[in-house]
Each structure stands twice: as C-alpha cells, then as structure tokens.
C-alpha cells in the first residue's frame, strides 16, 4: 500500500478517490477542558446542509489534507474555519497518533487515516460556528460522550476519534471493558 | 481469534503457549517524570540471568497476566516485584491502550497483546532492583529514549511500548516523521 510519505504520482479531486479506493488522510481534533474539576469534551453538530452525515455529531474540528498542505497546517486551518479557534491556540494542539479504517457505501470504498490531535482549551473558551460546516457546539461530560458513541448519533469516524481519546486518557478500564483490546485494535486497521 | 474476555477453556503453562500459537496477554508500564522541566522516562535493564533478552533495556515494570489475575492487579504486582514501586503509587498508573504484535523465533509463534499503563512518578522517586529480573534502572531524557529505540538495545516489544508513549505524548510529529502513520498502525497488529 502506498504510504503518506511517498512522493505523489498525480493529484485528483477528493470526491473521486472512493471510485479508486485510494487512501485519504485527514486531521481530527479532540478539544477538551474542565468544568468544576471534571473533564469535558467539545463536540460539534454537522450542518443539515452537509452532503455527508448531516446533523450528526463531529469532533470539534476536522478536515481532509489537501495537496500541498501539511498535517498541522491543515489542523490549524480547520480549527479556524470550523470552530473559530485562533491559530495561536490551535497550534498548541498535541499530535497523539492516528486512527485508520476502511468503510464502504454506495459511493465506493474509503480507506482513511486520520491524524489525531488533543487540545486542552481554557475553561472560558467557547467555539463558534465559522464556515457553516457545523451548526452548533456542545460541551459534554465524558460519560455523555460515551453515551453518544454508543447511541450512533456520531459520524462514525468521529466516534472512533472520541473513543481513542477516552482510551488514551484512562477513561475506559481494561478490567471493566471486556472488549478493551479489540476496541484498541479496531481503531488501527491497516487494511 | 479468541478474545481476552472469552471464558477460558483450560489453562496451560505459559512457556508452552508458543508451541500452539496461543495469544498471551501482559501489562507494561511507562514510568515517567520530570528533571529540570524536561520529561524523562525510567527504564530497566534486564538481568543477565534472564532466559530471554538478557541485558536488554525494558520498561520500568512489565509481566504476563497469569490465570486468575486481573490486568491492573498484575501491573501493581509487577511494579512492586521488579522495581519496588509501592502499591499505592502503582495504583495511580493510568491505562492508556494496548499494543499488539506477533513474532516468531526458534521456540515458536508468539501473538501477544500488552495492556499499556503510564505512571507519572514524583521527581524524588527512584526505583530499586526487586526480585532480580532487572539489574539496574536508568532515567533517560526522551531523546535518549528515541536513540535507544533506534539502536536495538531494547527488548523489541518494550521498544514498541516506549514508542507508543512518545507518539501519544506528542514527542513525534506527523510532519517530521515520514513513517508516523505506519508506526502507529504497526503498534496495533491484530494478526
């Protein structure tokens, strides 16, 4: 399989990649903060006008990596466009790994790899709707995030990003979650 | 493939599992702290009397999960036995995921899954040799940990645990490490 670091052979319109099963790369942000000493996560709800997954829960900011843009550069751009997060704050986001998966729908096959970032936000920070890709933002406690993941209200790959956050930060316990090992492996499929 | 949560069909001596290719589970601890504001990691060097990987670098504490013991229970036990970490301190370790891999040597096939924990240690804490499985402990800066991973001085699966730590804590950058995505996927092979 070609790698992210391989020199590009040619470029194409992103919407066409699914016809060829080409792997796409993107960035997703877990934006988290504290309220009354409890950890909370900022989530967006996708606009009803989005062609894919309208009205579903999304991470605070996310977007595909276009030709010529770097990984962190894409994240900072999406943070500003989607959630009005100032670049100086977005640049403090920490890269924490990737999630990888493949899905299929009527449009084709979608192998994807998302570079994941965590950003701890000041308590007083509030995201605002930017370019209209999100309709609203919510601050949820982590138990509510777990419920949202289980409910199917999330855009599926965004649920994986939030699940990865819960695991990496110790909010799922290997002695209490029977499928802990399978959940971690399921977040990192290489094919 | 059977899962960690499946009810056991029977128990066997751990040394025999490689003959049957049975997946083994264990726990590994990333013990880290700060020196003059810089993050550092405690690593052990395995005793020369160990039958496997004698004299190689290891995580601060690690061990296989035996019949009847829980994941966290195993970690706390190994912390005390190998590095004299008091149970009350070891119990503060945070579960942060798993690494999964399969290797083969002259003894057989070893599919393994390690439950990974991070423990932030007080600056004044120093591990001590316990049951003699380790001969010495070192406190290394994270650049030195990177060099040790690249040098081959590590027991291989312990290098994966340390690499996973560096990635999760943002000490590798997706824009600077060309194989970032492949490194993350390589830490989580399900077969």
UniProtKB/TrEMBL annotation, chains A, B:
One family from Pfam that matches here is NUDIX
The GO molecular function terms of this record are: 8-oxo-dGDP phosphatase activity
Q: InterPro entries this protein is in?
A: NUDIX_hydrolase-like_dom_sf (IPR015797), NUDIX_hydrolase_dom (IPR000086)
Residue ranges of every copy of the Nudix hydrolase domain listed in the record = 11-162
Protein name stated in the entry: Nudix hydrolase domain-containing protein
**Species lineage, top-down?**
Eukaryota, Metazoa, Chordata, Craniata, Vertebrata
